[in-house]
Write a structure and sequence with these properties.
elongated, 273 residues, six-stranded mixed beta sheet, D-Maltodextrin-Binding Protein, domain 2, 3 domains, five-stranded mixed beta sheet, Alpha-Beta Plaits, alpha/beta, 9 helices
């Protein structure tokens, strides 16, 4: 089985894919759109994508792609994000003057740069890619912030661990594929829907769940592409493909301009460590 990820091998997406599909071969893609292309065209059987981080928030591009592409969510997995300072062999902590990483990773390690004011943060397109960069370019005063797996992937050495400011730092990953088959034990549904701009429209839409005692674990809005100042709502409900959920979605379809079920899957257990 082949599973696509966005980013380099050794990234957090690679780590999440390994935990969700331990025996799958991982295919690295440069862009998120390429990940979805490979799934839709059947070049890979599945993909693992980040959808939100507990500190940085949602991955907007992936919400947009879930809405417009023919894919379906089958699982979710919360990955604890641990940032490490990784350098080429022979480079000591005292030598480091520049640290490369993805801007979000750099932002999550502000205390590290505050304490070590002589070290400059260098934005890079990918966490694991930053490790490969400092390894291949042999920069004597550079290191990278990335997962420990990136050090193993590219032969780097971990100088420091736990650089993140907040240890309760998790990214929720989704497993997607072209299949719309709902598996056993599915008790969570993700949907996207749009409404006409009328008084009380959102209240009426959400009431279809409240009337049936269906709990919502997430709701957010995103601009509706091609229609300025109109929005699509993304909602996670804590029900699977049962009668209450089906009736709620039928009721919602009577109110909304459109409703798309993005996936029905087992809710992940919240484990805070």
């Amino acid at each position: 089985m082949k599973v696509a990820i966005q980013g380099e091998l050794g990234s957090f997406s690679h780590e999440a894919a390994g935990k969700m599909l331990p025996r799958a071969g991982v295919v690295s893609c440069a862009r998120s759109a390429e990940v979805f292309d490979r799934v839709e065209k059947g070049y890979v059987q599945a993909a693992v994508i980040p959808i939100e981080n507990s500190l940085a928030g949602s991955v907007a591009e992936h919400f947009d792609l879930l809405l417009t592409r023919d894919v379906f969510i089958h699982r979710e997995f919360p990955l604890r994000i641990r940032h490490n300072l990784i350098a080429p062999p022979g480079v000591k902590l005292a030598d480091v003057r520049r640290v490369f990483s993805h801007p979000i990773a750099l932002d999550q390690c502000r205390n590290f740069f505050r304490i070590r004011s002589k070290i400059q943060a260098m934005p890079f397109y990918d966490t694991a890619g930053s490790v490969r960069h400092v390894m291949t370019e042999t920069i004597p005063d550079a290191a990278a912030i990335a997962p420990a797996q990136a050090a193993r992937q590219y032969g780097g050495r971990v100088l420091l661990t736990g650089l993140e400011d907040d240890q309760q730092n998790y990214t929720r990953f989704l497993l997607i594929s072209k299949s719309h088959k709902v598996g056993r034990g599915s008790n969570k549904t993700s949907i996207g829907f749009a409404l006409k701009n009328l008084p009380g429209a959102l209240f009426k839409a959400l009431s279809v769940f409240a009337l049936r005692d269906i709990d919502l674990s997430k709701i957010e809005s995103r601009p509706l592409r091609g229609r300025p100042w109109e929005y699509v709502f993304f909602v996670d409900i804590l029900h699977g493909n049962d009668e209450a959920a089906r009736n709620a979605l039928r009721h919602l379809a009577e109110i909304a301009e459109f409703v798309k079920v993005l996936g029905v899957y087992p809710a992940a257990h919240r484990v805070l460590t």
